[in-house]
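User: New here, any thoughts?
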Amino acid sequence: MKRKILIVDDEKNTREGLKWALEGKNHEISLAANGQEATDLLSIQPFDLVITDLKMPHMDGMQLHEYIHSRHPQTFVIILTGHGTVESARAAFKKGVYDYIEKPVNIDELNQIVERALREKNLEEENEELKRNLEEHYGLNNIIGKSEPMKQVYKRIIQVAPTKATVLIQGESGTGKELIASAIHYNSPRKSRPFIKLNCGALTPTLLESELFGHEKGAFTDAHRQKIGRFELADGGTIFLDEISETSLEFQIRLLRVLQEQEFERVGGAQTIHVDVRIITATNQNLKERMEAGAFREDLFYRLNVIQINVPPLRERTEDIPLLVDAFLKEFCRDNNKSLLKISPKTMTLLQNFPWPGNVRQIRNVIEGMVVMATSDELTPDNLPDEIRASGDKDHYIRIQTGVPLSEVEKQTIESTLRATNGNKAKTARILGLGRKTLYRKLQEYGIE
């Protein structure tokens, strides 16, 4: 996709020179001799990026930025500054200008900054489009991912949500199983009723029964009054039981009865209570193996496993990492009252090549720490935790699932090699044994930016 760039400078040679430097990169370039011409062009067509001189008559670069920021907030602005105005450019940087370049302009530096800006704009737009589409069609805007494994998860959510079926969500710790359960509930006919969550692994068997089924006054020591359990609170809605594999066999018998009969008694009580509750469970363990080991009831497993959703680990959907990083950067910069930080290409490469044993939860925590501790406007490898920075010394690799089409393997190989070369297409072509024209054709064919 061609990106529209507007170059604003009162010096014709500078305008023409910058256009010459950028137009070979498949960009659509427009020129303006002053701020007024720029605002006129902006009023009739959108631009992805504006490169403007800081010092111009009538309307200077900062005034133009303020106009763009108020009327066209999706447009990135880069300021050109002379030696005597660097401090002014740095001040503009803090007010939302994407970056600044000192004159005389270094063409390589210009191309690097422009490519980085457009790369970040691509991420921003992908995130917004993804959220918009998920919200419009599915109401899944809290789940981030456009990879094929995540598309399969979305598909199953939409298929199962309108039904009454019990759902078992399996996935490693930190993959977002609770978000999946929430998406199922809020896309179901029960969405106006309660969504009650409980981590079964965090409670002893006695406390777990009391929490879920409630208890009568005097049922056990410290039971000084009647307690309404979570199954009662969830009546008409959904209850989500995380870490279901950690429950005792005795508890599993009681849960099986609720599944079969939709009824139970409070601990220490005789009155049978009837409820209408949909049950969604989750585990980071293999329930079949637990069942075979005698730690999980076979009859309960088959009642819970009516519909199974497997959430992929982050290492199997690395193309989602830039989207996650972009979303978390915005969240934590906003929460910590910081201007939106940039992330260097090398840093992103390291993040994409790390295996993330803690999955989405881990990368979220890493980005939060980087934002909090950042001392400059760009996050570099020095901002990364030691284990992630050290992983950059390892050979680059990609994981390919069995049965993936060859076209997808080729696409992932090209993307991974581009990341490893920091976007150097000539080097990528040499490594892959392709002619440059062939590489460019494949980039266009696969929609790789």
About this structure: The mean pLDDT is 87. The first strand starts at residue 3 and ends at 8.
